[in-house]
């Protein structure tokens, strides 16, 4: 079984005609993404990254060859750049990686089971958690302190308080 991969960045549109690309980094300091080279794409291919400007990078394949031109760069748009989970530093006691939330049991404030976190989404307007529930539709909850007041990765539990705006409907059997 392959080790779990953590998304660290995404290749954007080409920059110029010489094979450079825009890259969106998900590291705390965007420039730190290059320190995690080699990065892996979804197929397991290795890439190294060298920053050439703010948000602009040169990608090199496993043989150290940079992208030849704009056409080669266009083929990589939306390519996800990942690393193996064990390559990341251990978070502080109260910290965690968003990927660590997947699989946690979601409970209400009284401890009653709601479901299980199956995905963490971030489409640019804020992070949300997808909670799969037995016999009911999935619940999408904003990842805010009000909606998620407690995260306990050590106990594999997360407390969920859906905002009033979220209608929690049961699915008919």
Please, how many helices?
Answer: 1
Helix-strand topology string: EEEEEHEEEEEEE
For CATH, the homologous superfamily of the largest domain is named as RimM
Global structural class = mainly beta
Give the helices and strands, then pairings:
Elements: E1 5-15, E2 20-25, E3 39-40, E4 46-53, E5 56-61, H1 70-74, E6 80-84, E7 105-107, E8 113-122, E9 127-133, E10 136-142, E11 150-152, E12 157-159
Parallel strand pairs: 7-12
Antiparallel strand pairs: 1-2, 1-6, 2-5, 3-4, 4-5, 7-8, 8-9, 9-10, 11-12
Descriptive keywords:
173 residues, mainly beta, Elongation Factor Tu (Ef-tu), domain 3, SH3 type barrels, 2 domains, 6-stranded antiparallel sheet, 6-stranded mixed sheet, 3% helix, 41% strand, elongated
Characterise this structure:
The protein is mainly beta and 173 residues long. The chain folds into 2 domains: 5-87, RimM (Elongation Factor Tu (Ef-tu), domain 3), CATH 2.40.30.60; 98-159, SH3 type barrels, CATH 2.30.30. 3% of the residues lie in helices and 41% in strands. The chain contains 1 helix and 12 strands, in the order βββββαβββββββ. It has one helix spanning 70-74, and strands spanning 5-15, 20-25, 39-40, 46-53, 56-61, 80-84, 105-107, 113-122, 127-133, 136-142, 150-152, 157-159. The strands form 2 sheets. A 6-stranded antiparallel β-sheet has the order 3-4-5-2-1-6. A hairpin with a 2-residue loop joins strand 4 (46-53) and strand 5 (56-61). The longest helix has 5 residues, at 70-74. The radius of gyration is 19 Å and the shape is elongated. 18% of the residues are buried. The mean pLDDT is 90.
